[in-house]
Write a structure and sequence with these properties.
The protein is mainly alpha-helical. α8 links the parallel β4 and β5. The N and C termini lie far apart (49 Å). Bound molecules: tryptophanyl-5'AMP.
Length: 346
């Protein structure tokens, strides 16, 4: 696998990221986030959160939310995140997230949130019926990150705008309260072919939990036959695979499948095309891609199943992670409150 471009650890870096427990994880989450989580955990201090507060911005049945919170944690561990190394926890177990989010609600401007494309996509035509939480969602995300003064956030490309907002909030807080450099201007770690995995049915749409067609995505828990059949039926165009990356332009479905192959095998798209360029999709490339997916995902889904058989153990690991997270969060929140002018704790 390609390692994310990350500056050499100096001790001054801290990584934070999160995944919502709002549905089954898919290949986009795996390549856009989890694979990077694993690579980064040995380079610097990393916090990986299951963002259950974010999940309830859209209705979640309580039992499902609890099960999915454990499932996301199991996916982190099964993908290779080591809870002895990285801090893994549920967001709601660290109340400082909500407290800092309130302060940031008073720093962020309505005009900034009005520009958030993900709110527009998720609220659809009836934005007056969306929860207030869905609207202020990116402010909570900024609080997640800045509560730990995280400097780097590994995410897929769809989170780029939220990371820009995080920087805007940090800069405005530092400016308004005359606290230069108090919050860092966090950088997103987005690069690599896994950053934007598209639907298998439509190369112009992102692979997503919310797509009504299960054929559009590879779920982490799909078995080998399902994966092979989804790849066989994945949309392509009638031309053979091109010889050069430039010739993938205007061919979004081909580009996506080559990108998935590249991300899974740790190659560049050019290297993948050096092996498969000039060939049709059906005979060799698609079966090779299905084999690669099964080889990579089958052990992850088997380990997830094993871990989920013992939910109490997952809860214990998350609780231990939450304690470590709080120890980092408390002094930063206390200092933030002092800067704002709150008197408690002085
Ligand atoms: P979420 O739960 O939608 O997605 C989790 C991670 O998966 C990435 N991702 C993708 N990457 C590549 N291709 C795709 N098709 C694809 N779909 C999803 C996402 O970019 C993300 O990295 N708002 C966040 C959760 C969050 C968070 C945070 C992230 C809350 N607080 C603080 C980072 C830092 C979200 O909804 O991700």
């Amino acid at each position: 696998m390609t390692e994310p471009a990350f500056p050499v650890a100096t001790g001054e870096h801290r990584v934070f990221s999160g995944v919502q427990p709002s549905g089954a994880l898919h290949l986009g989450n795996y390549l856009g986030a989890l694979v990077k989580f694993v690579a980064l955990q040995h380079q610097t201090q990393c916090l990986y959160c299951v963002v259950d507060l974010h999940a309830i911005t859209a209705w979640q049945a309580p039992k499902t939310l609890a099960a999915q919170t454990r499932e996301i944690a199991a996916a982190y561990f099964a993908a290779g995140v080591d809870p002895a190394e990285a801090i893994v926890f549920a967001q709601s177990a660290v109340p400082e997230h909500s407290e800092l989010a309130w302060i940031f609600n008073c720093v962020a401007r309505l005009g900034w949130l009005d520009r958030m494309t993900q709110f527009k996509e998720k609220s659809g035509k009836h934005k007056e019926r969306a929860s207030v939480g869905l609207y202020t969602y990116p402010v909570l995300q900024a609080a997640d990150i800045l509560l730990y003064k995280a400097t780097h956030v590994p995410v897929g490309e769809d989170q780029k705008q939220h990371l820009e907002l995080t920087r805007d909030i940090a800069a405005k807080f530092n400016h308004d309260f005359d606290a230069p450099g108090f919050f860092p201007l966090t950088e997103a770690l987005i690069e690599g072919p896994g950053a934007r995995i598209m639907s298998l049915r439509d190369g112009a749409a992102k692979m997503s939990k919310s797509d009504p067609s299960d054929q559009s995505r590879i779920n982490l828990t799909d078995d080998a036959d399902t994966i092979a059949s989804k790849i066989r039926r994945a949309k392509t165009d009638p031309l053979p695979l091109p010889e050069s990356v430039d010739d993938l332009k205007g061919r979004p479905e081909a580009d996506n499948l080559v990108g998935i192959f590249a991300a899974l095998s740790g190659q560049t798209k050019a290297q993948v095309l050096a092996s498969y360029g000039g060939q049709g999709f059906g005979q060799i490339f698609k079966p090779a891609l299905a084999d690669l997916l099964v080889e990579r995902l089958a052990p992850v889904s088997a380990e997830m199943r094993r871990l989920m058989a013992d939910p109490a153990e997952i809860d214990r690991t998350l609780a231990a992670g939450a304690q470590r997270a709080r120890a980092l969060a408390e002094p930063i929140l206390a200092e933030t409150k002092r800067i704002v002018g709150f008197t408690a704790g002085r």
